[in-house]
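Homework help board

Subject: predicted structure for assignment chain

Our instructor gave us this sequence and asked us to write out the predicted structure in token form, then describe one feature. I got the tokens but I'm not sure how to describe them. Can anyone check?
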Amino acid sequence: MRKRRVYIILGTIIVLFFLLLILRSIGGNVSIGQKVAVVDITGVISRSDATIKLIHTYRDDPNIKAIVIRIDSPGGSVAPVQEIYSELKKIEKPIVASMGGSAASGGYYVACAADTIFANPGTLTGSIGVIMQFTQLKGLYDKVGLGHQVIKSGDFKDTGSPFRELTEQERAVLQSTVDDVYNQFVDTIFEARGHLLTRAEIAELADGRIYSGKQALDSKLLDQLGNLPDAIKTAAELAGIEGKPKVVRKEKKTSLLEQLVGVRQMPPLDEMFSPPGVTFRYEMDLGK
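My token output:
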């Protein structure tokens, strides 16, 4: 009889232990009640899958009444930025954007999906525009006496090759593409801020320059100055939550490499060691 009791107690402890591990792995905060979820978007935006998965989790949780997008990013690749923005626009719950140290270019693009945009007075934002960059190796190859030959199916198939200069025709084609994606950016801002700014006024602001949070507020690119707690409080009010809301926030796990090097938010390895070529981004560029 005693052995049976011991086995039952041990079995209960083991089951509770594994339940605790499972609950921690899916978010850590399992309290019942009305909650505000915080979605962190940090570093260069090169992928969207994990962020969209988290957005869908909070979208489908009936206890999550509002979402705060905490942005600390200089922007990133065009497509992932647009994918995150599109998924946020489908959410029927209140969304508030909170800008951290920076929310520039693609970071600002994502913020435009929110009902209200917060920034700190010293937040670095703006940098509205598109940049396409090429790595040029022709001079190096000429120095070491290396050649490069290409067989292609069309005149523009190797546009952006690092082994030669762009032709005038190629420049015109690429500029047309950049202009098209730039206009998409301006249209997105106009959709979000059109009640405060005309499209012409937005285009005048969208020349690639950076703004402080205070300057962006003065230019009507955002709604209020405030920090993350202010944004959470506003999100709770928009959702009709009374009192201090419970906050759900998934903590980012630091990789072993980041711990050893002592640097957080390192770019993905495939991005760090990708071969020379074209980059096409909504990203702040301060001569890096």
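Reply (TA_rk): Your tokens look well-formed. For the description, you could write something like this. The chain has one domain: 32-283. That's the kind of observation they're looking for.
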